[in-house]
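Practice problem 4.
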């Protein structure tokens, strides 16, 4: 099931309203896609309202507004190596604030304090229930679904400051979308990134040093995860620079494509 968060475009009696919805139709035929609005949040048993829109008549928003985004660094050995780093002995985690989140087609605003902003295509996990100290054999019970993410990074700031809060937490540095896929096996999915249509990253989740389940166990040992929280699982090799005017697209097999344009921060 594909769960989206959307607003209704002008011209509809419901214009401007924001809802969750279930997307149905053939993704290969965009004109066939429709959104069935849900009452309230999508956790538990979704409750359709009966309101339906064509996908082209709504604006997709970030599929979730998490209380926190817990990201994992250097979880692909080839990516760690390309930046001259070793794979850490334990998962390397950091936070991106909720204010970093944007949705599909929203713009990544190039921060004025950096001259080397880079893309990082990732699989994102969306948590579906409050949990802590999750056992490995019960991880599936706390996962709501999966979406695409771009862990946009000011690489020069990351290297210069030695900690990652500003480098990875600036406004618009966490595009998520286009929707959440709830029925997906994350073990071996293609993760790709293109910039202006040119392939830059091509990896598979089977190359992750630590699996989705292992990451959830590790993170939940330390903190309570809430419904809607997001875990970013790391990026494959091939990261590189973005420039103002670029169109960057992250695709994850079985989910879809998240596209964003880079603009100058106004």
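Answer key:
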């Amino acid at each position: 099931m594909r769960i989206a968060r959307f607003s209704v475009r002008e011209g509809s009696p419901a214009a401007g309203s924001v809802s969750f919805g279930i997307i149905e139709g053939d993704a290969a035929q965009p004109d066939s896609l429709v959104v069935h609005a849900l009452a309230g949040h999508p956790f538990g048993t979704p409750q359709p309202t009966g309101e339906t829109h064509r996908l082209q008549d709504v604006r997709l928003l970030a599929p979730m507004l998490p209380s926190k985004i817990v990201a994992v660094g250097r979880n692909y050995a080839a990516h760690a190596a390309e930046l001259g780093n070793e794979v850490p002995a334990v998962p390397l985690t950091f936070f991106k604030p909720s204010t970093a989140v944007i949705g599909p087609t929203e713009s990544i605003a190039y921060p004025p304090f950096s001259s080397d902003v880079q893309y990082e295509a990732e699989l994102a996990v969306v948590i579906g229930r409050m949990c802590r100290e999750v056992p490995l054999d019960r991880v599936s019970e706390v996962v709501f679904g999966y979406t695409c993410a771009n862990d946009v990074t000011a690489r020069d700031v990351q290297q210069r400051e030695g900690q990652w809060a500003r480098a990875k937490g600036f406004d618009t540095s966490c595009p998520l979308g286009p929707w959440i896929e709830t029925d997906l096996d994350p073990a071996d999915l293609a993760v790709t990134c293109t910039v202006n249509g040119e392939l830059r990253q091509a990896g598979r989740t089977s190359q992750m040093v630590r699996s989705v389940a292992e990451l959830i166990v590790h993170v939940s040992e330390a903190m309570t995860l809430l419904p809607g929280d997001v875990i970013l699982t790391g990026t494959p090799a091939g990261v590189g620079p973005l420039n103002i005017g670029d169109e960057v697209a992250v695709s994850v097999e079985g989910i879809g494509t998240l596209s964003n344009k880079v603009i100058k921060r106004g």
